[in-house]
Design goal:
Layout: E1 7-11, H1 15-27, E2 31-35, H2 38-47, E3 52-56, H3 64-74, E4 79-85, H4 89-97, E5 102-106, H5 111-123, H6 126-140, H7 148-161, E6 167-170, H8 177-187, E7 195-199, H9 205-213, E8 214-215, E9 227-228, H10 230-233, E10 238-242, H11 249-261, E11 263-264, E12 273-274, E13 278-283, H12 287-292, H13 298-304, E14 307-310, H14 321-331, E15 337-338, H15 340-348, H16 354-369, E16 375-376, H17 383-386, H18 400-421, H19 428-453, H20 458-465, H21 469-475
Parallel strand pairs: 1-2, 1-3, 3-4, 4-5, 6-13, 6-14, 7-10, 10-13, 15-16
Antiparallel strand pairs: 8-9, 11-12
Helix pairs in contact: 6-8, 7-8, 11-13, 14-16, 18-19, 19-20
Length: about 475
């Protein structure tokens, strides 16, 4: 008779671990088989299909990652969890990137958490987890788009968010490292505790130590009262240390002590205090190179780089650009859109400032175009973008508005001359109405052209056109202004 029980396979060379897990999970109503090597794994999976596999990283005849690859290739419906010691957490993170559903650390300090993970994997669908991931990303404004690398980043960040490990985020300036840090915090069990971000490169050494660890009254000039530091305020929350590579040697030493012992002292005090803050650090500089150049402590890097997440630059995920632009326009409460050829121009640009630069250019364009047009064209972009494909587009320095205007005038003139040469009756009122339309068009175009040249300064534009502000508003069809 076929069993309806959920089936679990455990592969661990430590007999005690296998026996313990089998006893625990059998009591919970699961059907459990245990093996102690890669060979026994292959024997078991050849006889039976499993719903969940718990695989140890280190085995006598193979590695857990090899078994993981086999499971994903031949038994794709089976959920997988990698079991690892603290020293091999990086390997476990690699396993997640290879398709493992999660990992757990040995020894199992929290049995309830272990049981919760197993129950969740066996009874929750992948769809519900995916939905939660996407909802959290939307909440914090983490736009990951369609690129495979960003989806992998989102998945890995979500998996490690619940682990009590430090994270190092690597990426160029403006890629969104703080947004990713917020995502990890919101996906973690610390979500209801404080999330505090601090830029280590934007604060002086003395002030940074005071911000991080707090100070006693009179500890230094200006310390008129005692102050709690971030490690106290965010004791059970998350601290995001941006530009960690800019921290001074003295601050690095104190950070190392906190990471190793969970202990710190306020500036000017000798009382040892405890903290349970999770550290997420980020840097746009290569910290390994900084260690080689004696600018960053190797032992501190080792403590920070338990899990490393790398955000790809915008130029490597250019297919996501339209979605990012749409997100930024919504964020600015703008009803404007960029023209199709502007989006193509965006795709050709290298974006050295990444998403931060895209955000600034979008804000600038919206500020200049708001109230003038519904579609943002090249004429609202900075020169550095217009210079991107000058060779491909010889007329790129000519604005689209200018081209549209010239086309309108040419067509209007052609139609008027055609009427003039015609040997038939002409309704003069219709002709004069078209002349009035041309007059309105010309007035508005000259005003808009001058506004662009004066970066939106209406007063200067009116002076250059030698008209009043009232006339300028009239020509822009702002008759009620």
């Amino acid at each position: 008779m076929k069993s309806n029980l959920r089936k679990i396979i455990i592969i661990d060379d430590e007999i005690e671990v296998g026996n313990f897990l089998k006893h625990l999970l059998t009591l919970k109503g699961y059907e459990v088989d245990v093996g102690h090597s890669g060979a026994e794994y292959h024997e078991l999976v050849a006889k039976k299909a499993y719903d969940l596999a718990l695989l140890d990283v280190k085995l006598p005849d193979t590695s857990g990652l090899s078994l993981l690859a086999n499971m994903k290739a031949h038994h794709s419906r089976c959920k997988t969890v990698i079991m690892t010691g603290y020293s091999t957490v990086k390997t476990a993170v690699d396993a997640i990137k290879l398709g493992a559903n999660d990992y757990i650390e040995k020894p199992f300090d929290d049995i309830d958490q272990l049981e919760e993970l197993i129950d969740q994997l066996l009874h929750n669908t992948a769809t519900s987890e995916q939905t939660h991931m996407l909802e959290l990303a939307e909440q914090v404004g983490f736009v990951f788009g369609q690129s495979g690398s960003m989806h992998q980043l989102l998945t890995t960040a979500y998996k490690i968010s619940t682990k009590n490990v430090n994270v190092l985020i690597d990426g160029e300036t403006g890629t969104g490292k703080e947004v990713l840090a917020k995502y990890i915090h919101q996906a973690s069990k610390r979500r209801n505790q404080p999330f505090i971000a601090i830029n280590c490169g934007a604060i002086s050494e003395a002030l940074l130590e005071s911000e991080l660890f707090g100070h006693e009254k009179g500890a230094f000039s200006g310390a008129v009262k005692e102050k709690k530091g971030i490690f106290e305020i965010a004791s059970n929350g998350t601290l995001f240390l941006d530009e960690i590579g800019e921290a001074s040697p003295s601050t690095q030493v104190k950070l190392l002590r906190v990471l190793e012992t969970g202990e710190f002292m306020r500036v000017g005090d000798e009382t040892i205090r405890k903290t349970n803050t999770r550290i997420i650090a980020a840097s746009h500089v290569n910290l390994v190179k900084a260690v080689e150049e004696k600018k960053f402590r190797e032992d501190l890097l080792y403590r920070l780089d338990v899990v490393k997440l790398t955000i790809p630059p915008l130029r490597e995920r250019i297919g996501d650009l339209p979605l990012l632009v749409s997100h930024l326009l919504i964020k600015q409460n703008s009803n404007l859109n960029f023209s199709a050829d502007v989006i193509e121009l965006f795709k050709e640009y290298s974006w050295p400032g990444n998403i931060r630069e895209l955000n600034n250019i979008t804000k600038r364009a919206v500020a200049l175009a708001e109230g003038e047009v519904a579609i943002i064209t090249r004429s609202y972009l900075p020169d550095k973008l217009l210079a991107v494909n000058v060779h491909e587009h010889p007329e790129s320095k000519k604005s689209e508005n200018q081209e549209d205007f010239e086309s309108y005038v040419t067509q209007w003139t052609s139609q008027l001359l055609k009427l003039w040469k015609a040997d038939e009756d002409i309704e003069l009122e219709t002709v004069l109405k078209r002349v009035k339309e041309l007059e309105t068009m010309i007035g508005k175009e000259f005003v808009q052209k001058t506004l662009k040249e004066t970066v939106g300064d209406r007063k200067i534009a009116a002076e250059r056109l030698q008209i009043s502000m009232r006339k300028l508003r009239y020509l822009l069809n702002e008759k009620g202004s």
